[in-house]
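In the design runs reported in the main text, the only information available to the sequence generator was the tokenized backbone. The following block is the verbatim input for one such run; it is reproduced so that readers can re-run the procedure and compare outputs position by position.
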């Protein structure tokens, strides 16, 4: 069997298993309602555009200005001649926003995570990871284990007793790094950051938080998991993205002490051997950050929308996972059922994605709703009526 034929055979199996991912093409900017090729207008409940900033004129215009001022790209890696002044401005603003001394941008948060673990960890060190951490953290740890031979451990999801046991067993390691998501993207729950930080102090460990789904989302002003718990400035390392609440384009960053970001500048391979963010992305992200600071009502509206949608889903008879974030998963069980529900909802004019194995564990397939500050009450009520009709048709409510 040829290489292409083997891949085609595996793709056929994906289709039979109901896990084949079909791309839906949008013909308008990312917003609460979008135009979808072949579908017309739909309410979108599958976007990370938590604050609705993807199409805000100030954000778009800032990207255009940066494009005019700096050109299409950097044409080089950063340490040669690929760093522009807008990168410095963005990194200073990001550090202030998340409450750290310094920050360093990457092409994505995936790059930031993969740049962190192999750079910091050696044979004498250990990284201890939450069981439900994002794939980027998992792959970053695997990469570090392969390259530097560091030790690794996994603790049961948000189980502080299990984390403590892992820390006790790691007492002879030079560096003990606890790595956790801030908001867990598939569950919508929040890391127990105060408890993690207390254990870190007790066992002389360092805490790293991937705040990709929390930056712009948690806390009164959207500064993330640390602000949510009143711990701004107390987290050792924060990684996050610019591709969700902060404009939705691309990019990620690592924030922490100035010594950390300087060390990553010297040694982090994704930083050393990749071009910097395109100027237009840096410009729009900086504008998005400033917009969030000037409009804290967006964060309040996001929280209100999430609370309303969750309450109304429950009133209809659905059982979304408990939580207080704008990620609202409804567990259905089998992958085929999650895919069927998402397809029926799309037919009703609501775009929400079904997830199954291997993205989530076997038997935990779900549709994951994501709310935005850009949604109006009419948008949410339209979506809820679609859920009522589809849920009734499938016998879920």
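Verbatim output:
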């Amino acid at each position: 069997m040829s290489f292409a034929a083997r891949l085609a055979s595996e793709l056929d199996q994906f289709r039979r298993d109901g896990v084949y991912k079909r791309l839906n093409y949008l013909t308008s900017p990312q917003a609460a309602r979008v135009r979808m090729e072949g579908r017309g207008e739909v309410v979108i409940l599958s976007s990370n555009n938590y604050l609705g900033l993807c199409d805000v004129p100030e954000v778009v215009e800032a990207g255009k200005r940066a494009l005019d001022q700096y050109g299409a790209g950097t044409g080089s890696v950063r340490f040669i001649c690929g760093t522009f002044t807008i990168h410095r401005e963005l990194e200073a603003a990001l550090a202030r926003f998340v409450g750290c001394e310094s920050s360093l941008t990457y092409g994505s948060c995936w790059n930031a995570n993969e740049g962190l673990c192999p750079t910091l960890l050696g044979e004498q060190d250990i990284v201890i990871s939450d069981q439900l951490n994002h794939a980027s953290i998992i792959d970053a740890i695997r990469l570090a284990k392969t390259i530097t031979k560091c030790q690794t451990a996994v603790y049961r999801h948000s189980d502080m007793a299990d984390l403590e046991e892992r820390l006790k067993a790691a007492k002879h390691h030079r560096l003990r790094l606890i790595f956790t998501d801030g908001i867990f993207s598939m569950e919508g729950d929040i890391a127990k950051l105060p408890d993690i930080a207390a254990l870190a102090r007790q066992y002389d460990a360092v805490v790293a938080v991937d705040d990709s789904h929390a930056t712009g989302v948690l806390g009164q002003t959207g500064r993330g998991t640390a602000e949510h718990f009143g711990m701004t400035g107390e987290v050792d390392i924060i990684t996050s993205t610019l591709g969700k609440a902060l404009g939705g384009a691309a990019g990620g960053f690592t924030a922490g002490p100035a010594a950390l970001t300087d060390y990553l500048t010297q040694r982090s391979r994704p930083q050393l051997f990749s071009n910097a963010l395109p100027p237009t992305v840096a410009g729009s992200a900086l504008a998005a950050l400033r917009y969030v600071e000037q409009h804290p009502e967006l964060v309040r509206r996001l929280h209100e929308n999430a609370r309303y949608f969750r309450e109304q889903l429950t009133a209809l008879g659905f059982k979304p996972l408990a939580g207080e974030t704008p990620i609202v998963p409804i567990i259905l069980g089998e992958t085929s059922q999650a895919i069927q529900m998402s397809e029926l909802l799309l037919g009703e004019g609501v775009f929400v994605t079904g997830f199954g194995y291997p993205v989530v564990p076997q038997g935990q397939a779900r549709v994951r709703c994501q709310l935005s500050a850009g949604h109006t009450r009419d948008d949410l009520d339209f979506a809820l009526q679609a859920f009522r009709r589809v849920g009734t048709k499938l016998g879920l409510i």
